[in-house]
Amino acid sequence: MNQPQRTTRPLPLLMIPLRRCGSHALRLRLNASPQFHSPYPLHIVDFMPLVPLYGDLRNDNAYRQLVKDVVGLQQASMVPWPEVHFDAEDVFQSLQGEPRSVHRIVWELLLRSAEKHGAHVAMDKALDSVHYANELMALFPHMRFLNVVRDPRAQVASMNRAIIHDFDTTLNALAWVKAHTTGRALALRYPDRVLTIRYEDFLSDQETTLRRICHFIGIEFLPQMLDIEASQEAQDLSRMSALWESNRFAPLPANKDKFKTQLQPQEIETIESLALELMHHYGYEIMTKAQAPEPTPAVLAQCHQNSEKLRSEAWEQLLRNAPRDYAARRVRADYLASVRERLQNISATETRAAALS
Q: What is the domain count for the chain?
C-alpha cells in the first residue's frame, strides 16, 4: 500500500467499530510515538441525540452554541487532554466557510491538539463513530480507519461488565453485529482507507500488528511501543477506572478465552448464532451448534428492562467501591444532562412565544 500523502494538517484516523475491543491497549502503545497523537476520546456518539435540538446550524448563534458545548464536553472529559485549552469563539471563527457539523468541531479540537504536540497523525478512539463514516469522509477525504475486530464472545463478555454498554448478552451481541457489519462494509468499499486487524493477532504478536498499523498511517514503528510499563499515560489511566486496570500490563494471550468462564453455554450460543456469518469471515471457530432462535420483540423488551435494572445497580456499586471513577463519569453524564435540559427549555420557550404571536 502506498504511504498516505502528508497534508498540511495531521492525518485524521478513526478507530472503529465498537468499544471493549482492546482499543486502549493499541492507543497507548501508538502514543509512544511523537508522530502520533490520540487523547482520550470525547465519544461524541453520546452527544448526537442533542444535535437536532440546536436547530438550523446555518444560524450563527446556533452553531456558535454548538461549538461552545462541544468544547465544554471536552472540558468535562473524565481524562483531561494534555497541555491544551480551547477558546470556543476562536474555534467558531476558524470554522467559518467550512461545512457545519458537530463532527467537524470535534475533529478541529483533535487536530489542534495534535498540532500542538507536533504529531503527524491524529486518532479518535471514538469507535462508535463508525456509524457516521460517510459524513466524516465527506469532511476529510483523506481520513483513514483502523478497524479492530475482537472475538464477539470475548468482547460481549467484556461489554457485559462495562457501564458504557448494556448489561445483557443478547443486546451486546446485536450491537457487536451491527457495528462490525458497518465496519466490514466500510472496509470492502474503501480497501485503501481501512486497515482491519484482529485483537487476538495483536495479543499473539504485538510488534507485527503495530508495524502494520504504523505502515498504514505512515509513521515509524518504535521499540518503546512494546514497553507499556514505561508509559506514564498507561499507568495513570489504569488507576482511574476498574475497566482500565489491565492497561498498565502486557496483555495475556490466555485471556482471550476468559469468556468461557464468564458466559453461560446458552449465552455463547446466542452470540454465535447472531454473529455466525461475521465470525466465519474473520476466522473465529464456533463452539456450539449456533442455532439459538432470533430474539423476538418481547424478548428484547425484557432484555432492555433487565439491563436497565442492572445498570442502576452498577452505578450504585461504582459509587460505593470506586468513588473517584464514579465522580469522573458523573461529571460527564451530568454535563450532557444539563445541556439537554437547557436546549429543551429554550425550545419550549420559543414554542410558547410562537403560539402567542
A: 1
Q: How many CB atoms lie within 10 A of CB 99?
A: 11
Report the predicted TM-score, pTM, of the whole model to 2 decimal places. Answer: 0.91
CB atoms within 10 A of CB 324: 12
Whether the Cβ atoms of residue 146 and residue 195 lie closer than 8 Å to each other = yes
The DSSP symbol for 254 reads G
In a domain, 357, yes or no: no
Range of the domain at 265: 11-349
CATH number for 92? 3.40.50.300
Amino acid at 59: N
Question: Beta 11-16 vs 36-37: how paired, if at all?
Answer: unpaired
Q: Distance between CA 183 and CA 193 in Å, rounded?
A: 12
* 2: confidence class by pLDDT, cuts 50, 70, 90: very low
Categorise residue 131: left if φ over 0, alpha if ψ from -120 to 50, beta otherwise.
alpha
Domain-located, residue 241 = yes
In the chain the first and final C-alpha atoms are separated, in Å, by 62
Q: Which pLDDT tens digit goes with each residue over 108-129?
A: 999 999 999 999 999 999 999 9
